[in-house]
Amino acid sequence: MKVALMSDLHFDVNGISPEETLNQRADFLAAQGVQYVINGGDTYNSFEKTITYMERLQAALPDAKVYFIAGNHEMVHDVSYEQLESPLSDLYLHHRWIDIPGTDWRIIGNNGWYDYGFASNLVGRDFAQWKRAFWIDSSIEQPMTDPERMAIVLQQVEGDLNLAQLAHKRVLFVTHFVPDDHYIRYTSDNRFWNMANALMGSPRMGVLLRRYGTSVVLFGHMHIHPEPLKIDQTTFYDQALGYGTSRLHEWQQPDFMTEWQNRLKIIDLDKKSIKRVDEI
Fold first, then answer.
1. Bridge partners (DSSP) listed for residue 174
2. What range(s) does the Calcineurin-like phosphoesterase domain occupy (predicted)?
3. Mind listing the pLDDT tens digit for each residue in 189-203?
4. Domain assignments of the chain as residue spans, ordered by start
5. Class of 2-279 per CATH?
6. Where on the phi/psi map is residue 17: left (φ > 0), alpha (ψ -120 to 50), or beta?
């Protein structure tokens, strides 16, 4: 069972025309025999544009299932907090799960959020005020504080993981925000980045996922291109594509399609020990 993992395509920021790449991407995924396509958020700075694109990708891949969650960039336009918590599309996987027929695998999704836990090294800082002044998330409206929102996320995720455990399912979990402090960079010379760590995610998410023995975790948000990381029974995949602009050039390849293929991770869930397809 081949599953393609990807995140943070940022089509609008990167100036990529979906018409130019959608069929190319669909053809490539079909040629690899991919049966599930999972996207970890930040496809557009618009929830409506992301839904439209994912529905078009699904139509171009009739032999596969396409699912996505929202990243913080999707939350900036065209959607409210209440809408994000509702089933806006059959492809939208937030606080939902999908069982893969004929296997013991369950795919669970949750957009995630942050609680400033990755910036616990900074004492007495007003992270909410800093966010309002410097971060794109300042325009995202929510009826609670960031730690309160993350507490709701953790409650949702634990409930979904508990149901999977009771059903004896192995879990592929997808979220947008960073779930483990192995990915967090603390510096002595960049105060902006140290403050931004507060908005990366929550260390409590990784603790929760490992406690339930989650097999695979896909996330994005940090455009750092690390290798897969296995901690205890859990393998973490940060498959963010990131920015390929003149101001922020994070790509390692010269064009979008080549970079996308390079960042795409295809894993085979039929194997007793999960392997990347390029290792099989």
1. 109, 218
2. 1-224
3. 778 889 999 999 999
4. 2-279
5. alpha beta
6. beta
